[in-house]
């Protein structure tokens, strides 16, 4: 079994391989995914294997900093390896050196400069990488003899065999430090997308339509998707959705709903597999039919049972996102944020003196966008296992009428000014006017036990409501 040794450079590790030899030669498992993951290496997804054969002792190559991960080892010979952290951050300029033979390997994370000096003739240096070299792109380099990092080469550089390009590499310069991969917000113009941007102001943003600081990207446009630089992102937050639940029951709405809620997430899941970014996708209580017991509510592993077109498209998106190796699928309910929503509608009615009739047999919990943002950040900060998590605000489940009454009370009106009606009666009124109406789950309450088990405690919905209305 291989073993792992850490170094002063974060993420750079030495792997001691299990090499078996006799008078005929040796055998080793140079890369065995299951065993490497078991000792702590990341599942970095190599896509290419390269061999650099060095005929003469003294050949010295580097210091090269490419934007991908490497797994380095030797097929024959011996080297002196040297690595320099070229990433932005506190460890910029940190170094590590190692004399290695065929019994050792080194995992080099993206942004760490890599170099080596050959100590034996006929040394074959091999490395796996998780991205393809792209012509015409220049990557950062560092002078082999830079006095700042002061690498103690065993063969003086004046006696070494060095390419002209490496001889002319620049000195260490913090301004050229490699930035981390970025975050992309999809669906950035919606209320959740805006809340995510407030928490990630350096993120790139796209939406179906362009806006200030927001680029246009249609996930249904194959050419546009293929041209987008997905390899530059570590995280993609997908807040895009078609949420016109009733309009989804129309011919045009059905197409739009499936494009945004099913095909779009499936495209992102495919891209997440190809480019190894973490995909965060926000889903809905509508993927369930509402027949689960109110306590504990719908759990993450409950079989999907969508009722209407919108619900079915969201469920299809959930299934697609589940195929992404690194994903957080966040199911939520009754989202309230910066934009047109139920709470603001009830507040406006209260201020106008209107006494509405509100559905009282649909029960669930509000989910404020800042709570969804907080939960998303928590999953990353705690390195929570990938998978599906229910997220909403906490407290006892409430009906839409009870929520409206709470808004009225906070607006100086009496709770009695809000009367109740059933979903069936409300639907009859909508249909009588010739408008479409989608079936609703009567129980939208989601079990929050799984997210609580990660150390996240949802804020009570009424406490969040007070803050929202203040």
From TrEMBL:
The record's listing under InterPro entries reads: dTDP_dehydrorham_reduct (IPR005913), NAD(P)-bd_dom_sf (IPR036291), RmlC-like (IPR000888), RmlC-like_jellyroll (IPR014710), RmlC_Cupin_sf (IPR011051), RmlD-like-bd (IPR029903)
Q: Which GO terms describe its molecular function?
A: dTDP-4-dehydrorhamnose 3,5-epimerase activity; dTDP-4-dehydrorhamnose reductase activity
Enzyme Commission code(s) on record: 1.1.1.133
- What residue range is the signal peptide? none
Q: Which residues form the RmlD-like substrate binding domain?
A: 182-460
Site entry (Participates in a stacking interaction with the thymidine ring of dTDP-4-oxo-6-deoxyglucose), positions: 133
> Pfam families, per this entry?
dTDP_sugar_isom, RmlD_sub_bind
Active site located where?
64 (proton acceptor), 127 (proton donor)
Q: Which UniProt keywords apply?
A: NADP, Oxidoreductase
Name the pathway it acts in.
Carbohydrate biosynthesis; dTDP-L-rhamnose biosynthesis
Query: Which parts of the chain are coiled coil?
Result: none
Q: Would you kindly state one Gene Ontology biological process term found in this protein's UniProt entry?
A: dTDP-rhamnose biosynthetic process
Query: What does this protein do, in the record's words?
Result: Catalyzes the reduction of dTDP-6-deoxy-L-lyxo-4-hexulose to yield dTDP-L-rhamnose.
Q: Which family does it belong to?
A: Belongs to the dTDP-4-dehydrorhamnose 3,5-epimerase family.
Output the PANTHER family linked to this UniProt entry.
DTDP-4-DEHYDRORHAMNOSE REDUCTASE, METHIONINE ADENOSYLTRANSFERASE 2 SUBUNIT BETA
Per its record, how is this protein called by name?
Answer: dTDP-4-dehydrorhamnose reductase
Q: Record the organism.
A: Nocardioides glacieisoli
């Amino acid at each position: 079994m291989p073993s792992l040794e850490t170094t002063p450079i974060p993420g750079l590790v030495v792997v001691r391989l299990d090499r078996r030899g006799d008078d005929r030669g040796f055998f080793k498992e140079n890369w065995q995914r299951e065993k490497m993951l078991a000792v702590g290496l990341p599942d970095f997804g190599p896509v290419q294997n390269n061999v650099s054969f060095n005929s003469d002792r003294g050949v010295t190559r580097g210091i090269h900093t490419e934007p991908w991960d490497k797994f380095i080892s030797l097929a024959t010979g011996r080297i002196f390896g040297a690595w320099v952290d070229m990433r932005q951050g506190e460890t910029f300029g940190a170094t590590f050196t190692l004399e290695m033979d065929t019994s050792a390997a080194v995992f080099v994370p993206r942004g760490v400069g890599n170099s080596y000096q050959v100590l034996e003739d006929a040394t074959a240096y091999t490395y796996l990488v998780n991205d393809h070299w792209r012509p015409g792109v220049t990557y950062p380099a560092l002078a082999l003899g830079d006095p700042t990092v002061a690498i103690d080469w065993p063969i003086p550089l004046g006696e070494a065999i060095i390419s002209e390009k490496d001889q002319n590499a620049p000195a260490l310069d913090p301004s050229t430090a490699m930035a981390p991969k970025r975050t992309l917000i999809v669906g950035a113009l919606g209320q959740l997308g805006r809340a995510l941007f407030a928490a990630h102001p350096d993120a790139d943003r796209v939406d179906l339509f362009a806006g200030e600081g927001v680029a246009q990207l249609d996930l249904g446009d194959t050419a546009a998707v293929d041209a987008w630089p997905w390899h530059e992102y570590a995280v993609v937050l997908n807040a895009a959705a078609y949420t016109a639940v009733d309009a989804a029951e129309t011919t045009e709405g059905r197409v739009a709903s499936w494009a945004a809620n099913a095909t779009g997430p499936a495209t992102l899941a495919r891209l997440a597999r190809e480019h190894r970014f973490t995909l965060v996708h926000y889903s809905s209580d509508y993927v369930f039919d509402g027949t689960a017991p109110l306590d504990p509510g719908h759990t993450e592993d409950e079989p999907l049972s969508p009722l209407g077109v919108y619900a079915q498209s969201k469920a299809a998106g959930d299934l697609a996102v589940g195929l992404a190796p690194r994903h957080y699928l966040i199911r939520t309910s009754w989202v309230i944020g910066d934009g047109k929503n139920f709470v603001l509608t009830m507040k406006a009615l209260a201020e106008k003196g209107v006494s509405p009739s509100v559905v009282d047999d649909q029960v669930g919990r509000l989910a404020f966008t800042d709570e969804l943002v907080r939960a998303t950040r928590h999953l990353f900060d705690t390195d929570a296992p990938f998978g599906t998590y229910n997220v909403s605000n906490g407290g006892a489940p409430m009906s839409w009428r009870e929520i409206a009454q709470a808004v009225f009370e906070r607006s100086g009106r009496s709770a009695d000014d809000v009367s109740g009606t059933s979903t069936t009666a409300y639907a009859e009124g909508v249909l009588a006017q010739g408008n479409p109406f989608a079936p609703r789950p009567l129980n939208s309450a989601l079990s929050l036990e799984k997210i609580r088990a990660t150390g996240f405690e949802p804020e009570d919905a009424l406490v969040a409501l007070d803050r929202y209305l203040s």
